[in-house]
Amino acid sequence: MAAHRQVLLFLAVVFAVASLASATEWKVGDDGGWRAQFNKTGWADGKTFRVGDTLLFKYPKDNHTVIQVGKEDFAACNVQTNNKLGAWFSGNDVVPLDKPGKMWFFCSVDGHCNNGMKLVINVVGDGAAPAPAPVQPAPPPSSAPVMGYTAGAAVAVAGAVVAVVLAF
Ligand SMILES: *[C@@H]1O[C@H](CO)[C@@H](O)[C@H](O)[C@H]1NC(C)=O
Ligand SMILES: *[C@@H]1O[C@H](CO)[C@@H](O)[C@H](O)[C@H]1NC(C)=O
Ligand SMILES: [Cu+2]
């Protein structure tokens, strides 16, 4: 029985670590943060953003904003849009990437978007949902079953509960 418990506890820890490791917090602009003419940095190039990851926008509060919009408002720098998909103002903004597809952001301070303070990213899913992204090579058959962040976390919690219950 004791061995049984240890196995369950081990599995719970493995799943907890795996689900943590699968989520990345991307600091937008790295140490330079979210800043003027952001489009010139090429910061998003070559990065793979995944469902479950987050973006962290750091900037001096009141000097910039983070507004999520659709493709047309983004292209036109339509900062007066009534179709905001999200808006953040704290200077320390965490934006969850909760579904696959493109996400468009700009700064709504006068002139900033027109000067290039904008960011578009493509978020890829866990393989279940179709995403407009390059085809990834299939994982080798020997690897563990593909599991999304939420499923992994749920299994970790369930495993931990079972382990705790058996410990008493
Ligand atoms: C924020 O903007 C104000 C003027 O709008 C400027 O004086 C100040 O230096 C800026 N702060 C930072 C940290 O860039
Ligand atoms: C950044 O945005 C500005 C203003 O829209 C544009 O003139 C410039 O070509 C862009 N630069 C890059 C590298 O995309
Ligand atoms: Cu700005």
From TrEMBL:
<dbReference type="GO" id="GO:0046872">
    <property type="term" value="F:metal ion binding"/>
</dbReference>
<dbReference type="GO" id="GO:0009610">
    <property type="term" value="P:response to symbiotic fungus"/>
</dbReference>
<dbReference type="Pfam" id="PF02298">
    <property type="entry name" value="Cu_bind_like"/>
</dbReference>
<feature type="signal peptide">
    <location>
        <begin position="1"/>
        <end position="23"/>
    </location>
</feature>
<dbReference type="InterPro" id="IPR008972">
    <property type="entry name" value="Cupredoxin"/>
</dbReference>
<keyword id="KW-0732">Signal</keyword>
<keyword id="KW-0813">Transport</keyword>
<protein>
    <recommendedName>
        <fullName>Phytocyanin domain-containing protein</fullName>
    </recommendedName>
</protein>
<feature type="transmembrane region" description="Helical">
    <location>
        <begin position="146"/>
        <end position="167"/>
    </location>
</feature>
<keyword id="KW-0186">Copper</keyword>
<keyword id="KW-0479">Metal-binding</keyword>
<keyword id="KW-0812">Transmembrane</keyword>
<keyword id="KW-1133">Transmembrane helix</keyword>
<keyword id="KW-0325">Glycoprotein</keyword>
<keyword id="KW-1015">Disulfide bond</keyword>
<dbReference type="InterPro" id="IPR003245">
    <property type="entry name" value="Phytocyanin_dom"/>
</dbReference>
<feature type="domain" description="Phytocyanin">
    <location>
        <begin position="24"/>
        <end position="125"/>
    </location>
</feature>
<keyword id="KW-0472">Membrane</keyword>
<dbReference type="GO" id="GO:0009055">
    <property type="term" value="F:electron transfer activity"/>
</dbReference>
<dbReference type="InterPro" id="IPR039391">
    <property type="entry name" value="Phytocyanin-like"/>
</dbReference>
<keyword id="KW-0249">Electron transport</keyword>
<dbReference type="GO" id="GO:0005886">
    <property type="term" value="C:plasma membrane"/>
</dbReference>
